[in-house]
Specification:
It contains 12 helices and 6 strands. By secondary structure, it is of the alpha/beta class. It has one domain: Uracil-DNA Glycosylase, subunit E, CATH 3.40.470.10. 41% of the residues are buried.
Length: 250
């Protein structure tokens, strides 16, 4: 792979540079998303009210899931501009799951389209991952928390069952968890993202599905903490290794 050499690392490091204008637009309290105390036993399940037919196409199942979100008892949907469901290739074997939409995402109705999203796309391009071709992206929360604040446990609980169902529909072979909230929630961990990202994991749901899972820093965190570029580079190499070793389609 082209990323496995010094020249590529230098190019990656330079392209990951941050500016004052970029950091000003970063989600408020982004550092907090790495260490929020999220107890797994507090995640109450909220049932999907609309069930899809197992014989339906993946696209139809996603439409049913998206339609069912209006029935979720979450106050955020009443104050957000748009429901932010997903983006990317629904037939991809790689699924990215982040935290919650920001201001630009709320405006456009798509995940990771602000400055942090642009950085995420740029980083993934170094291992030949492109949103429109070979990965699918969503968030645990489908609506923007006011002021871009960190989601609270209740909001996460209200959307979690939908996220689990989302994963079942996409059936990825690799899940990339973007940021501490996504990592701690879906891996049921009390550790922070800095620790979680040090090793690869398996995501498992109630159906005993096991999916390769890798956690990475949220790009909003990297915009404020460029010193973590080297660790992010290591994470990209690990993701590339998982993809190649397990014949995951990219």
């Amino acid at each position: 792979m082209k990323v496995k050499n010094i020249k590529s690392f230098i190019e990656f490091y330079q392209n990951l540079g941050t500016t004052t204008s970029m950091t000003n637009s970063v989600r408020g309290n982004s550092t907090n998303l790495l260490y929020q105390d999220l107890a797994a036993n507090e995640l109450e399940k909220v049932p999907i009210l609309k069930k899809y037919n197992k014989n339906q196409s993946k696209q139809k199942k996603l439409e049913v899931l998206k339609s069912s979100l209006k029935d979720i008892n979450c106050d955020l949907k009443d104050i957000a501009t748009n429901l932010v469901f997903s983006d990317g290739n629904i037939d991809s074997e790689i699924m990215l799951i982040g935290e919650a939409p920001g201001a630009e995402e709320d405006k456009q109705g798509k995940p990771f389209v602000g400055e942090a999203g642009k950085l995420l796309d740029k980083m993934l391009s170094f291992i030949d991952l492109k949103r429109e071709k070979n990965f699918y992206v969503t968030n645990i929360l489908y609506w923007r928390p006011p002021g871009n604040r960190t989601p609270n446990n209740q909001e996460i609980s209200q959307c979690l069952e939908s996220t689990i169902e989302h994963i079942k529909i996409i059936k990825p072979k690799l899940i990339i968890l973007v940021g501490g909230i996504a990592a701690k929630t879906l891996l049921k961990s009390q550790e922070g993202i800095t620790k979680i990202r040090e090793t690869s994991h398996y995501y498992s749901d109630n159906d005993k599905t096991k999916i390769y899972t890798k956690a990475i820093f949220h790009p909003a965190y990297l915009l404020k903490n460029p010193i973590e570029k080297k660790r992010m580079w290591d994470d990209l190499l690990e993701i590339d290794k998982i993809i190649s070793k397990n014949n995951i389609r990219r």
